[in-house]
Design a protein that fits this description.
This protein is of the alpha/beta class. It is 37% helix and 22% strand. It has 2 domains: 185 residues, 2-enoyl-CoA Hydratase, Chain A, domain 1; 39 residues, no CATH class. Helix 1 packs parallel to helix 2 and helix 4 crosses helix 5. Belongs to the peptidase S14 family.
């Protein structure tokens, strides 16, 4: 039996006072530790949802890096975030797929890394029994597909059939979308480049070091203003 990785759902605050929620790993499921099922069971996820509901912040940033998992848990996390009074910003990283993309739709702002991939597909399930059981499973999967497509459609301002067709590609396995495609389809609002800010250096420092830059240099050089020069002169006088 495949062992499902532990769901990593943590809550903290950044320097600006916003709440930050990191969702990393498969959504829902269970892991048997020898005594009981724990970690990413539905009760464990609901406990985290209560913590999310108790967060007192004007803005909540939700970082998502997940291959997906159980639809019921994905829907529950989506609804908990969507109903929170704070402004929700969902940020997609890695290869985010399936139930995790449902959670991503809860954002008032939906962002995606340009390095990430985004997968939506037909719901999966298992059934055991007679032909009536199989028909019941087909009906259930159809309802789930329509619920998921409806969430995508409402956020994108499109018809559900548009997303059902996308989910149905590759025999229902869907296909991975890059950030440009995800934005085109209305699954995200914007893409971002995960990189550090460009470095700046004072031109006087370079001159003092005897370094001369070519006119077409791409290095971001910050010139010294007259106010900065006067301020430095005053500081030297005080010393």
């Amino acid at each position: 039996m495949k062992q499902i990785p532990r769901l990593k759902l943590s809550i903290n605050r950044n320097r600006k006072g916003n709440a930050v929620i990191d969702i990393d790993g498969e959504i829902g499921g269970a892991k048997y530790d020898g005594e009981e099922y724990s970690f990413n069971t539905t009760p464990a996820v609901k406990k985290k949802l209560r913590e999310i509901s108790d967060v007192d912040a004007g803005k909540i940033i939700v970082n998502i890096n997940s291959p997906g998992g159980f639809v019921n848990d994905g829907l529950a996390i989506h609804d908990a975030l969507a109903q929170h009074p704070a402004r929700i910003v969902t940020k997609v990283y890695g290869m985010t797929a399936s139930a995790a993309t449902i959670i991503a739709q809860a954002g008032d702002e939906r962002e995606m890394s340009r390095n990430a991939l985004y997968l939506i597909h037909r719901a999966w399930g298992m059934a055991l029994g007679n032909q009536n059981d199989m028909r019941d499973m087909i009906e259930t999967l159809d309802k789930i597909d329509n619920r998921i497509a409806g969430i995508y459609a409402r956020r994108a301002g499109r018809e559900s059939d548009y997303f059902l067709d996308l989910m149905n590609e590759n025999d229902g396995g869907g296909r991975f979308l890059d950030s440009i495609e995800a934005k085109e389809f209305g699954l995200i609002d914007s893409e971002f480049e995960p990189m550090k800010a460009a470095a700046s250096i004072n031109s006087n420092i370079l001159n003092a070091m005897g370094i001369t830059l070519p006119e077409d240099s791409s290095l971001n050089v910050t010139p010294v203003t007259e106010d900065q020069k006067r301020a430095r002169a005053i500081r030297k006088m005080k010393l």
